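In response to the reviewer comment on reproducibility (Comment 2.3), we provide here a single inverse folding case reported in full, input and output, so that an independent group could reproduce the run without further information from us. The structure tokens appear first.
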């Protein structure tokens, strides 16, 4: 395993040494940049499969699934795990193996290296999206997400790793961070692709409530968490579960106004039944349960961070606008990216033709299999 170092500026701080996995891109890169400029952090260890472009940190090239990861964690006080595959296009089995094994290795390696605190980032999707969800959900609400082949199943298994850590590794503190629907540069998820569709899907009789989390806000929240600020200091230990997201939520009418897209409403049975058939035939990347997250509410109350004095820089409206800028030029239907011509046809045809087209795709797929 190669070891790559960068020039690290000397610090006088007696604060923590913080390691970040997935440090070369996305939220990991944003967090590393913030920590590198924070005088209360003694040293930043940036871990990824390749060296990133952030200066003033110690780069360690490593695979988070490697059992020898503990050798890269000498003197680390806090580790933030952000090396997670969230792509809708990843093979579900390979993604599950990468995400769960990565979490297992990070926790085990941290315990072996005597890291005091691990911060594991999953998603508020673990609460599940349901028409009867309270709005907002408390951070200690039961987890109702379905443990299937979707990304939610990955997050639930990762959280099981976190739940077992105090038993298998006494003395190791683990905080689980659950962001709302992520938006921002480089974010590509089943939820973000919903806004690449020509129309907004809605289930008859149900009203989704939209809450977002910009990756910049996730990075600032993680910075506060690793420094044991606010509520963590008051309790003598960091909180076990932390929700991160914009304050409040957007109603569907507000989303329509901001996006300039109209909704189309379908009965729940037709919507999810058709989506599941398309998924079984390999036409769409995600199981039908993922559509619950664009049809039903899953807003989380970020009480722990609010008590600590943290405030998001983005509100839901500005976060949604950032999402629209990031997805401009992309077109998706039921989570599958399509060409511009297909998307234009879907826009003109509307919901009825979209359903007929889905049924036709099912018939064509069945004929090919015969």
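Designed residues, in position order:
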């Amino acid at each position: 395993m190669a070891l790559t170092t960068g020039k690290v500026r000397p610090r006088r701080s007696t604060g923590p040494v913080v390691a970040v996995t997935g440090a070369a891109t996305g939220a990991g890169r944003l967090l590393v940049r913030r920590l590198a400029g924070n005088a209360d952090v003694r040293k930043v260890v940036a871990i990824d499969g390749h060296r990133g472009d952030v200066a003033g940190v110690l780069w360690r090239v490593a695979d988070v699934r490697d059992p020898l990861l503990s050798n890269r964690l000498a003197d680390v006080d806090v580790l933030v795990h952000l090396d997670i595959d969230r792509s809708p296009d990843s093979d579900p089995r390979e993604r599950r193996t990468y995400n769960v094994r990565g979490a297992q290795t990070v926790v085990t390696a941290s315990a072996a290296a005597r890291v005091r605190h691990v911060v594991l980032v999953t998603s508020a999707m673990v609460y599940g999206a349901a028409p009867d969800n309270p709005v907002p959900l408390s951070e200690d609400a039961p987890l109702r997400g379905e443990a299937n082949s979707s990304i939610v199943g990955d997050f639930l298994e990762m959280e099981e790793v976190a739940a077992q850590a105090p038993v298998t590794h006494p003395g190791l503190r683990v905080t689980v961070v659950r962001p709302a629907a992520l938006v921002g540069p480089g974010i590509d998820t089943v939820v973000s692709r919903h806004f690449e569709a020509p129309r907004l899907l809605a289930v008859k009789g149900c009203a989704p409530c939209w809450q977002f989390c910009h990756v910049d806000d996730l990075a600032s929240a993680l910075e506060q968490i690793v420094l044991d600020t606010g509520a963590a200091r008051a309790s003598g230990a960091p909180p076990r579960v932390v929700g991160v997201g914009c304050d409040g939520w957007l109603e569907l009418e507000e989303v329509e106004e901001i996006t300039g897209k109209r909704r189309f409403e379908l009965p729940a049975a037709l919507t999810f039944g058709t989506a599941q058939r398309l998924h079984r035939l390999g036409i769409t990347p995600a199981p039908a349960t993922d559509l619950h997250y664009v049809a039903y509410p899953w807003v989380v109350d970020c009480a722990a961070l609010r008590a600590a004095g943290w405030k998001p820089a983005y509100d839901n409206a500005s976060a949604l606008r950032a999402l629209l800028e990031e997805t401009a030029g992309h077109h998706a239907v039921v989570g599958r990216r399509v060409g511009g011509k297909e998307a234009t046809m879907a826009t003109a045809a509307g919901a009825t033709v979209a359903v007929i087209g889905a049924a036709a795709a099912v018939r064509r797929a069945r004929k090919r299999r015969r």
